[in-house]
Write a sequence for this structure.
């Protein structure tokens, strides 16, 4: 059955609905990172603060390793039952994970069960985000329309960054409004309650979204059903491309954003509050750049932007981190972090649409989600832990070379692949 393309008003409404839900999902995900320093003493036994931090970031990484499972299960679900169905299921899991973190007693009260509860919550959130990325990236790319697909699909990362910013904003408000002791004892629970309540609202919002035309027009032949084997046996090149183009991009993003917040406060030059303010300001600039770069890709293609990220990332990652080691003023730290995020915009602004344009509709959600989640689990989610491991071994600068090398791997991929704007497999008719 063929559906007519939506008019401009319907298209904008759908993109807004999908984006708003994505924002809440990523707020819940990043609240853990923003409040990690408060979670560490609550969920783990007293001891070495560095060991507690490693434990917290290890569980952060565990959540990423659930993302491929979520991508696999909900990618198939979204390809067979619809993009809207996948979006609704993912936010339900996220709500449960956030509420579990909010209500779990501390290690002093229930011992290791507190740690177990935190792990379970992050596993639920990992499943959720694993499905969310593929479903939202596919939904926004299919709803966008050919001429402005790069622009509209860039809002997938706008809302991802917005979720991060909202989490940081909640942290800043609580730091300003509460005494440090109160925030450390119980105030850290507030953002997770907020996330759970917002997720309930998103559940009802997503139930009323229209389905995409591409899903309605997909092949329903038995041999074209979305499956793990169908992806890697029939589309091995595209799956490998997604993993390789993601590896350096996701590592750079987490190194330049999530880890830099820990890095700035760990150098001794800035307090946690000032580091949070620097990070929030740089991320706001980063967020505003995404639609501009997405629109540029609609004019000149996706490939030039990715190559620009690769080249600049290889050249400047080492100088960025080594300069931040000795920076003394918040303005200088903000400018350097903003410059790093400008570089990675060449990847983040268009990564969703590039992946969606590689696959036919009947397997698109799974194709976007699963290889991306695998690369994200290996390289993105482990970034803060690997950085702290290098630091614990007395080789902190080894992490800078690691990030540079992985960006180089992705750069080779960008140089060799075709431009998906010209060779897109998203068919609207």
């Amino acid at each position: 059955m063929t559906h007519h393309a939506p008019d401009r008003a319907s298209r904008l409404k759908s993109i807004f609905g999908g984006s708003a839900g994505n924002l809440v999902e990523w707020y819940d995900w990043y609240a853990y990172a923003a409040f990690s320093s408060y979670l560490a003493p609550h969920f783990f036994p007293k001891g070495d603060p560095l060991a507690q931090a490693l434990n917290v970031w290890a569980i952060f990484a565990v959540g990423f390793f659930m993302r491929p499972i979520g991508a696999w299960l909900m990618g198939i679900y979204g390809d067979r039952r619809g993009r809207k169905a996948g979006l609704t299921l993912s936010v339900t899991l996220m709500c449960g994970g956030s509420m579990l973190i909010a209500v779990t007693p501390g290690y002093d009260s229930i011992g290791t069960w507190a740690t177990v509860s935190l792990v379970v919550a992050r596993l639920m959130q990992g499943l959720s985000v694993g499905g969310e990325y593929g479903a939202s990236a596919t939904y926004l790319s299919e709803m966008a329309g050919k001429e402005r697909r790069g622009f509209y699909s860039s809002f997938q990362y706008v809302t991802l960054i917005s979720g991060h910013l909202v989490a940081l904003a909640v942290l800043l408000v609580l730091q300003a409004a509460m005494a440090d002791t109160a925030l450390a004892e119980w105030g850290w629970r507030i953002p997770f309650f907020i996330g759970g309540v917002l997720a309930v609202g998103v559940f009802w919002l997503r139930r009323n979204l229209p389905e995409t035309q591409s899903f309605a027009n997909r092949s329903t032949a038995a041999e074209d059903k979305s499956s793990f084997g169908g992806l890697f046996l029939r589309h091995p090149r595209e799956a490998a491309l997604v993993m390789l183009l993601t590896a350096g991009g996701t590592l750079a993003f987490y190194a330049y954003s999530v880890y830099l917040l820990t890095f700035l406060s760990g150098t001794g030059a800035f307090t946690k509050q000032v580091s949070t303010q620097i990070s929030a300001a740089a991320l706001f600039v980063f967020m505003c750049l995404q639609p501009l770069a997405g629109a540029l890709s609609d004019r000149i293609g996706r490939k030039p932007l990715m190559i620009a990220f690769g080249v600049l990332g290889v050249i400047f990652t080492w100088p960025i981190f080594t300069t931040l080691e000795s920076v003394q003023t918040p303005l200088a730290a903000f400018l350097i972090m903003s410059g790093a995020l400008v570089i990675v915009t060449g990847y983040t602004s268009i990564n969703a649409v590039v992946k969606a344009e590689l696959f036919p509709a009947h397997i698109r959600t799974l194709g976007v989600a699963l290889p991306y989640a695998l690369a994200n689990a290996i390289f993105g989610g482990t970034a803060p832990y690997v950085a702290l491991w290098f630091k614990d071994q007395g080789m902190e600068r080894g992490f800078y070379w690691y990030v540079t090398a992985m960006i180089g791997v992705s750069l080779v991929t960008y140089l060799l692949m075709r431009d998906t704007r010209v060779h897109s497999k998203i068919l609207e008719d």
Summary: Residues 282 and 335 are 8 Å apart (CA to CA). The mean pLDDT is 86.
